[in-house]
Design a protein that fits this description.
Layout: E1 31-34, H1 36-39, H2 50-53, H3 87-91, H4 100-105, H5 107-113, E2 117-120, E3 124-125, E4 136-140, H6 148-156, H7 170-184, E5 188-193, H8 203-211, E6 223-225, E7 237-238, E8 252-253, E9 268-269, H9 271-285, E10 297-300, H10 308-321, E11 326-329, E12 333-335, E13 339-340, E14 354-355, H11 358-368, H12 377-388, H13 393-398, E15 400-401, H14 411-416, H15 440-453, E16 459-463, E17 492-493, E18 504-505, H16 511-526, H17 529-532, E19 534-541, E20 544-550, E21 555-561, E22 567-569, E23 576-578, E24 583-585, E25 589-591, E26 595-601
Parallel strand pairs: 1-2, 1-16, 2-5, 5-10, 10-11, 11-14, 15-16
Antiparallel strand pairs: 3-4, 6-7, 8-9, 12-13, 17-18, 19-20, 20-21, 21-26, 22-25, 23-24, 23-26
Helix pairs in contact: 9-10, 11-12
InterPro entries: GH (IPR017853), GH13_cat_dom (IPR006047), Glyco_hydro_b (IPR013780), O16G_dom_2 (IPR045857)
Keywords: Glycosidase, Hydrolase
Protein name: Glycoside hydrolase family 13 protein
Length: about 600
């Protein structure tokens, strides 16, 4: 069990951050994203029960015989309660019991890896595994803490509309302990929220269902019609996020420009809901009025669905509480699967400090992986410079450089397949999509991409389990329980046609892959020029990419060879140290295919 470090706690010093600038700490962050339900189980006594995951108004009831799934079971196998239903349907009901204690128990592991900042998927109380369908914004999910039953009693005793009545549940207190322990390691932590919608079990929505047009919260939501009690039919109709009935949308107001999915618009949200959101924001940024005990920022889900007026107000509120808080928005698809959003309107200093920078990963995949949409080095360079030039310079360095997340295929699987990025990236839509253990070429290509990720502009991001060597297709296969070395795992079924006769893959912790991540993280942390230095592309020819990172004191040259043969390079005058091999180089050197070098000038 975790031993507290609270006695040694020192909060990271707040920086004097101008309102329109990203906090300096975000530019040197090594981000690690945690999906709590699948990260690590820390205790058994808080396992979810059927009543914790039921969503009655939209018919999602735990099947008869439901039970918590075994952590090490073959992901594609079925428990008795799952039989007779499609695999994808069963995954909505699966719970593995990951919790806050599991995160606490692995902080030493994350510190050893070199992580400096945690981005945690929603922790708010909710019935789903992903927690974007909040029951309560202002409480941590009861099954993430040590006393679910007691926490439900505390929540029931409050007036959720009145922050003066809010109490700290056992789960809330454990989360505050997690913040302290993260800060004790000089790490940062941000929470994930969707202010665009709630779940149907959310307290205000439940009041609307009960009281219809008489509800105090009827204006909080996008309700198209209320039920007429004088008719036998139920006329109640509302807008759910992208048509999903379990995610009723918060009402948008003061909309002055045309609203199109995937594009920014001017507007705000209902004032009552907005003030509740601000109260929740203050609760986690400054628990009991103390910012030292609070989180360091927010990741904001489906940011394009909310008007820019709200985001400007939200930034003012956040920065008035904590001057160096970091705000990163999910700004993704303009037109799926071919056009990503323009981050420009969100990164001018009045909205976010950064976005999840999928815009930089997609061309990188097409350069480093073997796909049906290849880019050469010049095209890759042009793509990166196009994206960087759309945002102010300080924001480029603060970008959260995501490669994979809870919404994408895992990196090894993404590199193993040749399809268009995020298009039919699963065996249900593409029967020939490969979901098993990748071949050795894929490992080499991915590890070469990682050299680029940890030497380019922007803060590197790791989706939990990538450093372990996990693989998996698009949602839900990227959300498997993590392959910890102290667990035993059944061989995993291959779910589609692949070369060879093997039907199963052995799965588990990949120590070699972990050490590669650890080495690259250490290189970045030990060389600040990789965080803040300028970048200059020196060679972009075919599959050869060379660039340098430099400032007034240091220079690092990065060589990347994606050609199908070895390549000999002539170095500029001087002596260099290859940070990947610890070898000194002062003349021509050769890189084999799918290999790279990170050369630091010594003389």
């Amino acid at each position: 069990m975790f031993t507290s470090l609270s006695a040694d706690f020192t909060s990271p010093q707040q920086e004097e951050t101008p309102f329109d600038k990203a906090p300096e700490w975000s530019k040197s962050a090594i981000w690690y994203q945690i999906f709590p339900e699948r990260f690590r189980k820390g205790m058994e006594s808080n396992n979810p029960k059927p009543e914790n995951i039921n969503i009655p108004p939209v018919g999602q009831i735990a099947p008869e015989g439901w039970q918590v799934s075994s952590w090490g079971r073959d992901w594609y196998s079925q428990d008795a309660w799952e039989e007779g239903r499609e695999f994808i349907d069963n995954t909505y009901y699966r719970r593995y019991g990951g919790d806050l204690q599991g995160i606490l128990d692995k902080l030493d592991y994350l510190q050893d890896l070199g992580v400096t900042a945690l981005y945690i998927n929603p922790l708010n109380d909710a019935p789903s595994s992903h927690k974007y369908d909040a029951r309560n914004y202002h409480h941590i999910d009861v099954n993430f803490g040590p006393d679910p039953e007691g926490d439900l009693g505390i929540i029931a005793s409050e007036d959720p509309a009145d922050p003066a009545t809010w109490q700290w549940t056992a789960a809330d207190r454990l989360f505050l302990e997690l913040i302290k322990e993260v800060h004790a390691r000089n790490m940062r932590i941000i929470m994930d929220y969707s202010w665009n919608h709630t779940g149907v079990m959310f307290w205000a929505w439940q009041d609307v269902l009960k009281n219809q047009s008489q509800s105090r919260y009827k204006d909080w939501y996008e309700i198209r019609s209320f039920d007429d009690p004088n008719t036998p039919h139920n006329e109640f109709a509302y807008t759910g996020w992208v048509g999903v009935p379990s995610l009723p949308e918060i009402r948008k107001v003061d909309v002055t420009t045309h609203r199109i999915n995937g594009q920014p618009y001017e507007g705000n949200i209902n004032e009552g809901a907005k003030q509740h959101i601000f109260a929740v924001t203050r609760r986690w940024l400054a628990p009991n009025g103390n910012t030292d005990e609070g989180i360091d920022g927010f990741r904001l889900d489906v940011a394009d669905q909310i008007g820019l007026g709200f985001w400007r107000d939200f930034r003012r509120e956040v920065r008035s509480i904590k001057i160096d808080a970091y705000l990163v928005g999910e700004v993704w698809w303009d037109e799926w699967p071919d056009k990503l959003m323009d981050p420009t309107p969100y990164t001018q200093g009045d909205v976010f400090d950064a976005v999840m920078f999928y815009q930089a990963y997609r061309p990188a995949r097409y350069f480093f992986a073997h796909t049906d949409y290849p880019l050469d080095a010049q095209q890759f360079k042009d793509s990166l410079e196009y994206e960087w030039n759309r945002v102010p310079e300080d924001k480029r360095y603060a970008m959260m450089n995501v490669s994979s997340t809870h919404d994408t295929p895992r990196l090894l699987t993404d590199f193993y397949n040749t399809n268009k990025y995020k298009f039919h990236a699963n065996p249900r839509e593409e029967p020939n999509y490969r979901t098993g253990r990748p071949d050795e070429e894929t490992y080499k290509r991915l590890r070469l991409y990682l050299v680029h990720l940890f030497t380019t502009i922007g803060a590197p991001h790791i989706w939990n389990g990538e450093e372990i060597g996990m693989w998996g297709a698009d949602d839900p296969d990227e959300r498997k329980p993590l392959w910890w070395p102290d667990h035993q795992f059944e061989p995993e079924t291959r779910t589609n046609i692949q070369p060879g006769d093997k039907l199963y893959d052995d799965v588990g912790f990949n120590a070699e892959h972990f050490e590669w991540y650890k080495k690259l993280i250490a290189i970045r942390k030990n060389n600040p020029v990789l965080n803040n230095g300028a970048i200059e592309f020196l060679t972009t020819a075919g599959g050869i990419l060379i660039y340098r990172r430099y400032d007034n004191q240091d220079e690092i040259l990065v060589y990347l060879n994606t050609e199908d043969h070895e390549y000999t390079f002539n170095l500029p005058d001087g002596q260099y140290l290859d940070l990947l091999t610890d070898q000194r180089i002062n003349g021509p050197f050769t890189l084999s295919t799918l290999n790279g070098a990170i050369l630091k000038r010594l003389v």
